[in-house]
Design a protein that fits this description.
The protein is mostly helical and about 400 residues long. It has helices at about 1-25, 30-45, 55-80, 90-105, 110-135, 140-160, 170-175, 190-215, 225-245, 250-270, 270-280, 285-290, 295-320, 330-340, 355-370, 375-400. The radius of gyration is 23 Å and the shape is globular.
Amino acid sequence: MSEITETSAGAKAGQQAGASWRFLKNHLREYGILFALIAIMAFFQIATGGILLKPINLTNLVLQNSYIVIMAIGMLLVIVAGHIDLSVGSVLGFIGALAAVMIVNWGMPYLLAGALCLVAGALIGAAQGFWIAYFRIPSFIVTLAGMLVFKGLTLWLLAGQSVGPFPPQFQLISSGFVPDFLNMAGFNLFSFLIAFAVAAGLSWMAIRNRAAQARTGTPEEPFAFFIFKTLLIFGGITYLGFLMAGFRGLPNVFIVMALLIAVYSFVTNRTTTGRRLYAIGGNEKAAMLSGINSKRLTFLTFANMGMLAALAGLVFAARLNTATPKAGAAFELDVIAAVFIGGASMAGGVGTVVGAVIGAFIMGVMNNGMSILGIGIDYQQVIKGLVLLAAVIFDVMNKKKG
């Protein structure tokens, strides 16, 4: 009897191990980018002699990559829908210039100017999305034209000059920090509690999603994988929050990014609109036959991208404290690279918001780490290009194996 029990237990263990291996093989990209970020951070932490994870450098890392993260979230939706947007860097620069003219030259209240800039960004995205969605003009061509148009408009708007500085209140978007309402000397306890709450909230959402999967069937992700990933994310966010709380606390833009990540993760994972967007990217004809209005959804996706590019433009202008004609140059390349490194597929229909954010921080940590080590911008560009190429090759090879 005991032999039969041992045999069945061994068979069950073998089945679980096989299931775990199959799951890891099918989700290698998803876990790979998380481990890649950890490995890259560990490497640069050692190579820089501990400078990378110093609170002041972590704060700079967040501030330097905030606008890339904001645009990467919008670009993910565009790429999932099977399109691309090359104009985001130029739109960022144009909106920054528009904000400078309205606030500095015209004396407009910064809140009103910021709201008008977000509306202008949404209208720009909608104008491009109109031709792409309803006239079937390739997004590559439309947004390439947009990139050239808004580069020119930025030069015209600023008359080739830098405009600034901005009012101190406007600068707080990018340079301000969450105040410590608990008044603890040498440590921003309120910021740490926010980071802890974010980590706990993400963990709670993950547990809730797994419980929902368990009610409808067996969860695909093995329990050990789920526990490890959840504890890793919880511990990582809490630790980084602790480090930054020891400096000046969480930057205001960190709160903006956290809210955007939460909202767009919910939209893509838990709403009908999100599921329809993935369906369009996977097979647009089949999606249309099932009753999905792909034209309207594509139109709204580009309008959303324009609005997020405008928000990134405000953040970037506030950080520089001036609007320059060359603002946003080549930013679209970093944004697109972040989304592809984060697991999105060139063919559309695949990718996650969290993956795009991780991809953006992989690029950011590499830039930051290589700068600390004194590696020239020439070699930095070469290394970033090779990383992007490796990510795309990995995606293609994965599809062939599948």
